[in-house]
Specification:
Blueprint lengths: L1 E6 L3 E7 L5 E8 L11 E2 L1 H16 L9 E6 L5 E3 L9 E2 L7 H8 L2 H7 L8 H11 L1 H6 L2 E3 L1 H10 L3 E3 H4 L5 E2 L4 E2 L1 H6 L9 E3 L4 E4 L2 H7 L6 E3 L2 E2 H9 L5 E7 L3 E7 L11 E4 L6 E7 L3 H11 L3 H6 L11 E3 L17 E3 L7 H25 L4 E7 L6 H11 L3 E4 L6 H14 L11 E5 L6 H19 L3
Parallel strand pairs: 1-5, 5-14, 5-15, 9-12, 16-22, 22-23
Antiparallel strand pairs: 1-2, 2-3, 4-7, 6-8, 10-11, 13-14, 16-17, 17-19, 18-19, 20-21, 23-24
Helix pairs in contact: 1-6, 2-4, 10-15, 11-13, 13-14, 14-16
């Protein structure tokens, strides 16, 4: 058996799979976020450890853990977990959605070597600018920093006693030479840190250590259970859904939206606000376009109307050409392709005939146009997208999925119901580390059905997308 642990922002999930990749048990533990000041977002690493204890104990109560061979890890990216020379936590972890280091991030991004070496914009959510903020605002703490760990890698430290990170998560720190798959001494020195402050690096499918004997005894594990490198949450989810080869991609219509494409080469374009990171498998990279409000936009509008999102989208009938009404889904700013934290959402071109259906369609179409923005940004770098899966709550709307298929001009495949997320991908990475297997076991899920584009509406969606882009340019100055 193989365990996958996924450390999210709102909770930690654990699953157990067998050699056939059948899920045998799962367990969850909730987590909370502390926001002591505007724009701050923190968690206590001790809470993660308590969650692991709860989840592992719950799994042990459901299955005989003596058959476990490996544990894989997945987790929220970018968090700054700071340890002193004794391995003790110095302050609460600064999370991925914390924006306090905007000034530091802008200053670092103005130095061309950061984009040149990392392949990415230095976003405020990334790890390196957070250390700059600590240096500028908590200098006593900064002086005590001996190791900087990402959230899931602090779990690894607890499980194994080893300081180790893997490539997909490390690529989101602004310290990794993403093409070389190694820490950049130049970038570390630019932030008054050195390689000694970083964990050693492994690939996500490699062993990083073994579970400590006292923990193995407590949870009923055999001796020397391998802990795999694992992956950042999106990379691990891609392993879970089988998007591990060039040409394969998935669109996730969750609270936020992600268009994720695997690539067998490194081809960054930082200016497009596309994330170019290492994948969780060797010699593989991935690109992501990130939409900050996808299903969240529909959830917001449904709440305004006092209705359920599924009822609103289910009443739309067959796909129609986009109307004159436009919705820009920038409720909290936008990442790809604008990197614009200030822009906000807008309805445009409403008239006396605009009704509930008009506005619901506009919301779905607005997110569809945002997906097209990411698609164009990714493919402009040479990334191939030949097969596209849809996952997340928004993929339950056939109208929405067909709008995306039509806008992109390609069919969208819907997997059978099942859990193909970060915990499942982490368990697969654990299986690879224990058995020597590779990407071949990260198979695509069974496809329940495929939603094809409507060719006669492609021109209408293209024209609406152009109006959408023009609207952003016009509104940007007003924000």
């Amino acid at each position: 058996m193989y365990i996958g642990l996924d450390l999210g922002t709102s909770g930690l999930k654990g699953i157990v799979i067998d050699d056939n990749q059948t899920i045998l048990a799962e367990a969850n533990a909730a987590l909370t976020v502390s926001r002591p000041h505007d724009g701050w977002s923190e968690q206590a690493p001790a809470d993660w450890i308590a969650a692991v204890e709860d989840v592992m104990s719950a799994l042990a109560s459901k299955v005989d853990m003596s058959g476990v061979r490996a544990i894989g890890l997945s987790g929220q990216m970018h968090g700054a977990t700071l340890l002193d020379a004794a391995g003790e936590v110095l302050r609460p972890c600064i999370l991925w959605n914390d924006t306090r280091s905007a000034v530091e991030a802008a200053a670092m991004d103005a130095n061309p070597m950061f984009r040149d070496l990392t392949g990415n914009i230095v976003f405020p959510g990334f790890t390196a600018p957070k250390l700059e903020w600590v240096k500028n605002n908590e200098p006593d703490t900064f002086m005590k920093v001996a190791k900087v760990l990402l959230p899931k890698d602090y779990l690894r430290y607890f499980l194994t006693g080893e300081y180790v990170a893997e490539m997909s998560d490390a690529a989101g720190t602004s310290w990794l030479d993403t093409g070389a798959r190694d820490w950049s001494d130049t970038l570390l020195a630019a932030t008054d840190l050195g390689r000694e402050h970083m964990p050693r690096l492994v690939e996500g499918s490699e062993a990083s250590g073994s579970v400590r004997a006292e923990l193995a005894s407590k949870w009923g594990l055999p001796a020397n259970v391998v802990v795999a490198g694992g992956g950042g949450d999106n990379a691990a989810s891609a392993v879970g859904v089988g998007v591990v080869k060039s040409g394969d991609a998935f669109v996730s219509l969750g609270t936020s939206g992600v268009l994720f494409a695997a690539s067998d080469s490194y081809q960054p374009d930082a200016a497009s606000a596309v994330h170019t990171f290492c994948h969780a498998l060797p010699d593989t990279w991935h690109q992501m376009g990130v939409i900050l409000a996808a299903a969240d936009a529909m959830n917001w509008f449904a709440k305004v109307l006092g209705q359920k999102p599924a009822a609103l989208t289910g009443a739309l009938g067959d796909l129609q050409a986009p109307g004159r009404a436009l919705f820009l889904p920038y409720l909290g700013g936008e990442r790809t392709p604008h990197n614009d934290a200030k822009i906000r959402a807008s309805f445009l071109h409403l008239d006396h005939n605009a009704d509930q259906h008009t506005m619901v369609r506009a919301v779905l179409e607005g997110v569809t146009h945002a997906v097209k923005d990411s698609f164009d940004a990714l493919t402009s770098t040479g990334t191939k997208i030949e097969r596209l899966l849809a996952v997340g709550g928004g993929s339950k709307s056939d109208y929405w999925v067909q709008a995306i298929a039509t806008s992109l001009g390609m069919p969208v495949h819907l997997p059978v119901a099942g859990d193909f997320g970060g915990a499942f991908g982490a368990a697969r990475l654990g299986m690879m580390a224990a058995t020597g297997a590779g990407a071949e076991i990260a198979t695509l899920p069974t496809i329940e059905r495929t939603i094809d584009p409507v060719p006669e509406l492609k021109g209408d969606f293209d024209a609406a997308h152009q109006r959408y882009q023009n609207a952003y340019k016009a509104l940007k100055g007003l924000n």
